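User: These chains co-purify. Model them together.
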Amino acid sequence: MVHLQNVYKTYKNGVNALNDVSIDIFDGEFVYIIGETGSGKSTFIKLLDGEEIPTKGLVEVNGVNVGKLRFSKVPLYRRNIGVVFQDYRLLERKTVSENIAFALEVINKPRREIRKRVREVLEIIDLADKAKSFPDELSGGQQQRVTIGRAIANKPRILIADEPTGNLDPERSDEIIKLLEKINGNGTTVIMVTHDINLVEKYRKRTIKIEYGHVVSDLKEGGYVHNV
Amino acid sequence: MFRMISRHFKEAFQGIFRHFAMAVSSASAVTFTLVLVSLLTLIVGNISQITRNIEESIAIYATIAEEVNEDEIPSLQRQLEKIEGIISVEYSDKDAELDRWIASQGENGEYYESYREDNPLPRAFLIRVASGYSLTAINDRIRQVHGMQDSEFGGVTTENFMKILAGVRRIGYLIIAALTILAIFMISNTIKITIYNRNKEISIMRQVGASNSYIRQPFVIEGMFIGIMGAIIPVIVTIVSYRYVYQEMGGKLLSNVLSLLPVNPFAYQVSAFLVLIGIVVGLIGSFLSVNKYLRWRR
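Assistant: Joint model of the two components:
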């Protein structure tokens, strides 16, 4: 469960990224966060994964007060949150399965467990046949699926996807959304930041719109609200 | 645990080989530094030894006034022992003084045997001091003690010589410290490049929740290894050259007081010290860069 209560974030350079934002996202939800570039979406993600602390207000994720989290506890906290980026961030010298395994190696999981989980993840992202391929041998959509696979390898309770379809054509975007829905179906909370209006309209889900650091709409039934 | 350590070592070596030229150049900076450190340590170590030898051979010779009775001597001795900086006070009576005199005169010594009955030599205290730097001050205080006739030591020259040695030693320490800091920065720069090369990997590690110490370790190992690499040549140079110098000079400078420290164990101790500096320098250097990079911007 994600609980933001009267959250303000002002950066050192004086930019007010978020103003009095209160949002509750419950376990198992699939939520879109939409808004223009510079609206505060990225700050929202950074507050959730512990990269930034709120200037004022409460950010609570799975019962953890993220703003008060001790420096050394951040890595441990992050193991419960998977993050997917628009630019994939895959390691070129590692194969698909090595990229997924990497996320488990660095948190020191036993080798046998890693092998088992990598097989499962490859099934989920439907890339079992590409396990030994390198990222540059894959299409954009496939690379994004690997990134998602890496993010869910550690079975996080929350998956945050930052513009996961930003670099993809509509068809590939559909694949990504379906994959995210599948992951959501397994009980993982999915928070997807996007400005792809077509997707938001096509796959209706709870949609929160942020503008100039304020939540301007929060529609349970989904869909895009045009400003009047 | 073992799995983690082997991974870190693998990554550290990969780091070194990926930018081998850079690793070699900073290792050679360490080499250069350590050769100088070695030279200075050899000099400083021997100066310490020489200082010790001189200190051991310094004694203040204080004579006792004629009017002092034999039974007053113990209390006089106690008074002297209380003076700060004095280690021991040894009493030498008239007979002993004559023996010493005769012994110091060599072949002609026997001539003085006739004075045994009517010994003109004063009784004396042989005083040992803790260090050679305050000889004059101690000497003056001895003279002020009631019942003392006179007090003398090797002279101001000895004290000055000791002061010069101490100065050289201090300058040596300063140069060693400065060079060590320089080497730390060289290594820290190399590690910075490794970090830069692995930027993406680190950001992913952080994202998926690898602990800071896990991320830090390969870099620290790499830094330490570069430090060890840099120490190899200085160790060889130290052992070979010190052995050569020691043998050529017969183990001493001019006189036995200025004797050199023996090759075994001194050259080996210095070598171990160099390897240790290499490791510590690598450790601190890499720690600095990694910590700078990993510092949370929260």
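The interface with chain B takes residues 49-53, 71-72, 74-79, 82-83, 89, 91, 102-103, 105-108, 110-111, 150-151, 153-154 of chain A (CB under 8 Å).
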